[in-house]
Amino acid sequence: MRLGGGDKGLLAVGGRPILARVLARLAACDAVILNANGDPARFAGYGLPVVADDIQNFAGPLAGVLAGLDWAATQRPDLAHVLSAPADCPFLPADLLARLHAVARDTGRPLACAGSGGRRHPVVALWPVALRHDLRRAVIDEGLHKVGAWMDRHGVAVADWPDLPFDPFLNVNMPEDFSAAERLAAAHPEA
């Protein structure tokens, strides 16, 4: 059974909202926005711009990525890339941005995503703003919803992190994930 309704990022793990933990890990970013649909007032305490998807009928994570790329193109044209990270991953690595930039640069691939335990985490990724028009076309004209499928078209490098003693990309989707996150936060307060 999945966690029911609400914003998972506002759940507290180890006494702190998951979103606060995520934002702490994104401190190295030049700018941070929240992509969320619905009433943005629920995030007012974070003092960040809240950008909704502009594609109707819930197009999934790619619509959120596109919203971020569009925001960067219009509000911060000096930014060449956007980093995406879900608001329900409480243990993101501190070197996330640096490692994704490095693997993209070293491989010459335009996109970079995180990996751990032999799996890719395509929503934890570095996206070139220059590809936003192609992404919009894929989502709207093709109805594409699979993040990895779109990434593979352009070339994606994977930066791998160890998944022991815990997976830094643990996603809190189910009650058992939340329980695991609470145990990890108690055992690894530095995470």
Profile the largest sheet: 4 strands, mixed
- Lateral arrangement of strands in the main beta sheet: 5-7-6-8
Intertermini distance: 26 Å
Strand content: 15-25%
CATH superfamily: Spore Coat Polysaccharide Biosynthesis Protein SpsA, Chain A
- Percent helix among the residues? 25-40%
How is this structure best described in words?
By secondary structure, the chain is an alpha/beta fold. The chain has a single domain (10-187), classed as Spore Coat Polysaccharide Biosynthesis Protein SpsA, Chain A (Alpha-Beta Complex). Helix content is 34%, strand content 18%. The chain contains 6 helices and 8 strands, in the order ββαββαβαββααβα. It has helices at 18-25, 61-75, 96-107, 132-140, 147-154, 175-187, and strands spanning 12-13, 16-17, 34-35, 50-51, 81-84, 111-116, 119-128, 156-161. The strands form 3 sheets. A 4-stranded mixed beta sheet has the order 5-7-6-8, sandwiched between helices. Helix 2 (61-75) runs antiparallel to helix 4. The longest helix is centred in the middle third of the chain and has 15 residues, at 61-75. The mean pLDDT is 94.
Précis, in short:
The chain is α/β, with parallel strands linked by helices and 191 residues long. It is built from six helices and eight strands; from the N terminus they run ββαββαβαββααβα. It has one domain (10-187): Spore Coat Polysaccharide Biosynthesis Protein SpsA, Chain A (Alpha-Beta Complex).
